[in-house]
Amino acid sequence: MILIKIGGGKKINLNYICEDIKTLTDQGEKVVLVHGASVIRDEIAKKIGAPTKTITSPTGISSVYTDKTAIDVFLMAYPGLVNKTIVARLQSYGVNAVGLSGIDGQLWKGKRKVNVYSKEGVKTKLITDNMTGKVTQININLINLLLNNKYLPVVCPPALSEENEIINTDNDWAVAVMSGALKIEKMVVLFEAPGLLKKFGDESSLIKIVNKDKLDTYLTYTQGRMKKKLLGAKEAFTQGLKKLYWSDGRIKNPIINALKGTGTIIS
Amino acid sequence: MILIKIGGGKKINLNYICEDIKTLTDQGEKVVLVHGASVIRDEIAKKIGAPTKTITSPTGISSVYTDKTAIDVFLMAYPGLVNKTIVARLQSYGVNAVGLSGIDGQLWKGKRKVNVYSKEGVKTKLITDNMTGKVTQININLINLLLNNKYLPVVCPPALSEENEIINTDNDWAVAVMSGALKIEKMVVLFEAPGLLKKFGDESSLIKIVNKDKLDTYLTYTQGRMKKKLLGAKEAFTQGLKKLYWSDGRIKNPIINALKGTGTIIS
């Protein structure tokens, strides 16, 4: 079983990804696809006049502020526009995909973080309406039920809290927890870069091989989203992952090339 | 097995519906829920500056003009915001719901109507980018797979065309075809009225009993959406339905009351 995660960037080539998934499933491989939708989410948020807001924790980590309106936009973008576009595209390639959010069948459950602190200038503000949390539990029965009946699950956030509220969640962390629950040995993560870069934005600075035990040292090279991906990667290895492929989602045969080692191999 | 269809109106009381579904499933009843989202769809369309457009056929029947932008808005509203809101609400009532659009697992397949004629003043215009069609085929295996594993399917449009394009589709017709495919005997349709009304808008003019063979005569009482519901009802009986309950989605115990005959019973 291969777990594939694709980022929410606009340059990710969905057709190339679908082609490779068709090849893999024709070879009898079981595939689970997880996707992001942050760019489309931000676009919709802007269009409806409620642009995505971020908050910065007292320790300096920024994250999306997810109030009720932001959850609505999240639902429009992730399980709505983006998930169904991917599912329909896979169908057009002959792959019988079924889209699921973390809410469906309690696929992704997590604990809501009720109190969040936000640094605003010199002041620190307590925010209590932030609907976010970290995924801790996966309904693998639903995933296996679909896979065993020849359906390919296409999964995205949001998740469900222990109190059955809809919560935004770190996708890379959720994927790591899912890889553990499904006992995944190989995971492919595709984004808008050739792999892990030594120098931010410099695509010629690709790091080909990374030792999973030294992931911490790479945290210094990375910023923003990439830092979260590294933390997700660390968690995935803690949960039993053997090989992680970070590669380019813009090129032809993105998955097959990733597995051949075109990008970064972490193991 | 009971098929329940709820309209997209804002006065439909989702909590009351979830309460009844919980009662029914606790009694061992298998339930499939289908929902609309037209009001939310129109709201989102307006907010993003692409309001829902309608076209009128040369024979005078109006329908939504579904171009690429309208499909995007459709995906945001139906399988996105509304479907996931319903799924999460059912989860909070202890019902393990899974949301599906007609795209997922090829649940609803239909033939796209490539050429559509629109009357504009005295002229008739040919429209070729209208993404609509009528559902003809249902993947009952996916529905049964979920039901047999204690998941409650929450279904909504759009559908998938024979060429795997995303198409808008008449929900009432699709529900009728689904009732036939699933060999449903009892169907409950809930909307923002006490049932079929003799006089449009006059809630005291409820018709309690309707003979399924005389549905055509009622077409004269009805307008707009209600006319489509009647045509859907006719088709459902053609496909083998035994009893159809049209009732109020705003009241306490809407489903249990419908089955008791509070609204209109068609048989």
Oligomer: homodimer
Quickly count the domains of chain A: 1
At the first level of CATH, the class of chain A is Alpha Beta
Low-confidence stretches of chain A: none
Coarse shape of chain A = globular
Mean pLDDT value of chain A = 95
The total count of strands of chain A amounts to 16
Protein chains sharing the most extensive interface: A-B, 40 and 40 residues
Task: Work out the helicity level of chain A.
Answer: 25-40%
Record the strand order, biggest sheet of chain A.
5-10-2-1-13-15-16-14
The description of the largest β-sheet of chain A is: 8 strands, mixed
Alpha-carbon distance between the termini of chain A? 17 Å
CATH superfamily of chain A: Acetylglutamate kinase-like
Beta-strand proportion of chain A:
25-35%
CATH architecture of chain A: 3-Layer(aba) Sandwich
Kindly identify the CATH topology of chain A.
Carbamate kinase
Q: SS-based structural class of chain A?
A: alpha/beta
DSSP summary: helix tally of chain A: 8
- Rg on CA atoms of chain A, Å: 18 Å
SSE order of chain A: EHEHEEHEEEEEHEEEHEEHHEHE
Care to give the gist of this entry?
Chain A has 267 residues and is of the alpha/beta class. Chain A is 35% helix and 28% strand. In chain A, the strands form 4 sheets. Chain A has an 8-stranded mixed beta sheet with strand order 5-10-2-1-13-15-16-14, sandwiched between helices. In chain A, strands 6-9-12-11 form a 4-stranded mixed beta barrel. A two-stranded antiparallel ribbon of chain A has the order 3-4.
